[in-house]
């Protein structure tokens, strides 16, 4: 059987042409921000006790990155973020599916979940610290709970937003439960689920770095807080830059993964 390939429409060609332009605009904005910061800090418009020139941050990064201490801090923070995010993802998606499959449970539990989403879970850190000790455990629990809630809520909303015709289509072809979820539900819900997954990762980063900043013995957040208390602005911003770069890289990976999953599932 010969497959006829569909030629791209004018709208699709225009959309493809806008992608490199958007990338250029993003890079132009980044370069402009760096240039403004460099100028304002060099001229004294912004006090260097608050912000140092980006060029000095790069110099400090080049000196800090090869050290063993930096490697240990990054390894600790990355491990905590990934473990927290994985727990949030593994528990959040099934929870969202459960809330969708059992509407009564969704109506009952959704207010509690939304309240937990709005409540600052950082308040529970002293209790967890007393129970689990000064280690990565309390940080993982808080960051995982912060990551889980948006993933569960967006999964439930995404599945509720699927058009009824897709359910009827799956039933008409006698799709198995595996085919129903992998070939119908998840591809249709992916555009709404993945923003929640990205948000879950962002909250995992926030929870991890914030907790390390407050009270920890190791990690990028701990080191940034340490240099903040030591009034070492250059090193503090160097570690903040590390968090920004890691977040951008992982966000790019998640965006690529979203496109790959949608392509493979369809």
From TrEMBL:
Keywords: Cell membrane, Membrane, Plasmid, Transmembrane, Transmembrane helix, Transport. GO terms for cellular component: plasma membrane. This is Transporter permease 1. The lineage of its organism: Bacteria, Bacillati, Actinomycetota, Actinomycetes, Micrococcales. Belongs to the binding-protein-dependent transport system permease family. The chain crosses the membrane at residues 24-41, 78-100, 112-133, 139-159, 236-257. The gene is ptrB. One of its GO terms (biological process) is transmembrane transport. It is a multi-pass membrane protein. Coiled coil: none annotated. Residues 74-255 form the ABC transmembrane type-1 domain. It is found in: Cell membrane.
